[in-house]
Amino acid sequence: MIGSSMAMVELYKTISRVAPTDATVLIEGETGTGKEMIARMIHHHSKRANAAFQPVDCASIAPSLLESELFGAVKGAYTGADRDRTGVFEAANHGTVFLDEIGEVDPGFQTKLLRFLQERTVRPLGSSRTHEVDVRVISATNRDISKMVEEKKFREDLYYRLNAIPLRLPPLRARRRHSAAGALLSGSTTSATG
Fold first, then answer.
1. Which pTM does this prediction carry?
2. Can you list the positions of beta strands (E) in the chain?
3. Residue 192 — pLDDT band, cuts 50, 70, 90?
4. Closest listed residue to residue 90, CA positions, set 126, 119, 117, 52
């Protein structure tokens, strides 16, 4: 991570306090600010560090496929399902699932995601059986989710479940500007991006 501004120092402190817990985390920030890197830092400093870290780019998966991607599917559940498929939540059991661009999740799927966060059970598509999984969920977005909640584009109850611990990443330009200002004030010649 680059940046040594006060905002970044506070962010590092928060990460060190949050990492050992199982709390869900919502990372907000502009594209390219290192949201997945922060998620990986949290995972690697948690008690789940020896288990899987599974990133999922919600924006790049068609809404019709996201359910099978996360929950899995049994053979014949849909056209082309020629074998049982393990979902990301099950594959990451005892580890961490990183849901990137959570603001892009289809409103119809938000209810299923909320149910998972409440019950921690998965039922693969086409299956009648559910089973428990133990995963930590970290999500990220470059959108203003609270505004989306106000506009009824994102479920309020899901937002509060995901946002147990909010982390806001400063944009890169702010990290450099604040770091440079601090270096000038202290008379330091260190790099503004370090």
1. 0.85
2. 25-28, 53-57, 72-73, 85-86, 96-100, 121-122, 131-132, 136-141, 165-168
3. very low
4. 52
What does each C-alpha distance from 23 to 19, 113, 164, 189 come to in angstroms? 9, 16, 6, 39
Tokens standing for 141? 């977005």
Residue with tokens 């409103």: 107
Q: Domain limits of the chain?
A: 25-172
DSSP strand pairing (72-73 vs 53-57): unpaired
How many angstroms separate the CA atoms of 161 and 164, rounded?
6
Amino acid type, 77: A
Higher pLDDT, residue 47 or 126: 47
- Give SS3 for 167: strand
Provide the 10 A C-beta neighbour count for residue 17. Answer: 10
Start-to-end C-alpha separation, the chain: 8
Half-sphere exposure of 32 (CA within 13 A, CB side): 4
* Each residue's pLDDT tens digit, 38-74: 999 999 999 999 999 999 999 999 888 899 899 988 7
Tell me the CATH number for domain 25-172: 3.40.50.300
**8 A C-beta contact, residue 173 and residue 188:** no
What is the dihedral angle through the alpha carbons of 4, 42, 160, 133, rounded to the nearest 10 degrees? 170
